[in-house]
Amino acid sequence: MGSKVNILRVTLDVSDLDRNYYNEHKFTLAHQPPETEIYIIARILAFTLNAHERLVYTKGTDTRHEPHLWQKDLTDALELWIEIGEPDEKRARKACARSKHVIIYTYKEGSSAIWWDQKNSKFGQLKNLSVINLPAQALEDLATLIDRTMDLQCTIQDGHVWIGNNNRTIEFDPVIWQEREG
Questions:
Q1: In what order do the strands lie in the sheet containing 69-72?
Q2: CA-to-CA distance for 67 and 7, rounded, in angstroms?
Q3: Are 16 and 114 in contact (CB under 8 A)?
Q4: Which of 1, 30, 60, 80 has a CA that sits 20 to 30 A from residue 91's CA?
């Protein structure tokens, strides 16, 4: 007997004062075993922190040729490539060659820091790459908000994030390990 896939419906209201971006987004996510709640929250946060009307989820985990999220310009050229996790150097280099900006969001407590210690010197050569660590405590707190239907509100100001629902708000600062040049 196969494992059950949960379909999550998300309404996300984003007020990003840093980018002067204010919009509501509605999307559906499949929560497939063995994905953890922390991974699902990392996916939602990656979208939230880069919200844009052309930012979309891709097949991501189903293909080696696509990121988890991407944003294309009106000519179909890749503007933004977003990875979630700890990709290898070859994948990061390929992404940087294909897109104007690449962001890697790490989310695994402990292993992400080890991964970054091993990769930072090589990734430092990739000028259009940003690497951001999502704090473990914030991810754990946000995982408690996962439900089949989620209405989330997010405010971002001076790099600080407040995100929650009508009952609870979690705030945190993403940890920037590398920021793209320019």
A1: 55-57, 69-72, 78-84, 101-106, 129-133, 175-178
A2: 20
A3: no
A4: 30
- Cα 93 from Cα 109, distance rounded (Å): 24
Other Cβ atoms closer than 10 A to 166: 8
Say if CB 155 and CB 17 are below 8 A apart: yes
Q: How many helices (H) and strands (E) does the chain have?
A: 4, 11
Is the pLDDT at 33 greater than 80, yes or no?
no
Q: Give the integer Cα–Cα distance in Å for 8 and 100.
A: 30
Q: In what helix (H) or strand (E) does residue 116 lie, and over which residues does it extend?
A: helix 111-123
Q: How far apart are the first and last CA of the chain?
A: 51
The domain defined by 6-178 folds into Restriction endonuclease-like alpha-beta roll fold (3.10.640)
Beta bridge partners of 162: 155, 171
Whole-structure pTM value: 0.93
